[in-house]
Write a structure and sequence with these properties.
It is built from no helices and 11 strands. The chain is mainly β and 126 residues long. The strands form 2 sheets. Strands 2, 4, 5, 6, 9, 10 and 11 form a 7-stranded mixed β-sheet that branches. Strand 4 and strand 5 form a beta hairpin. The radius of gyration is 13 Å and the shape is globular. The model has no long low-confidence stretch (mean pLDDT 96).
């Protein structure tokens, strides 16, 4: 079983920066791609960013590309999401996820992820 615990969500103003963390335990962290997803009130969960097992390859949703950066520290079993130039439309519950299968590349599809954290709330005021 894999446990994922997010932290770092809070209330910020538009234009601010914020870093989310996700602490992982329960299996070999560096064998699996990881991802961040978010869900805004009344909307479906959507892909935000993903990273391969060693951090050499990343992918982003169009809406966050250039503003968000995903990274991982395999020595600390921790995934990060650095969010800059935040906008009110970034308001959502952000969840980290661990891939279903070990792979060299990263996944962008929700179905490719098996384990999910409980989420952390990010609220961006205008």
């Amino acid at each position: 079983q894999v446990q994922l615990v997010e932290s770092g969500g809070t209330l910020v103003q538009a234009g601010d920066s914020l870093r989310l963390s996700c602490a992982a335990s329960g299996r070999t962290f560096n064998n699996y791609p990881m991802g961040w997803f978010r869900q805004a009130p009344g909307k479906e969960r959507e892909f935000v960013a993903a990273i391969n097992r060693i951090g050499s390859s990343t992918g982003y949703a169009t809406s966050v590309k250039g503003r968000f950066t995903i990274s991982r520290d395999n020595a600390k079993n921790t995934l990060y999401l650095q969010m800059n130039s935040l906008k009110p439309e970034d308001t959502a519950v952000y969840s980290c996820s661990a891939a279903r299968y070990s792979a060299w590349d990263y996944y962008q599809g929700e179905r490719d992820y098996l384990y999910w954290g409980q989420g952390t709330q990010v609220t961006v005021s205008s």
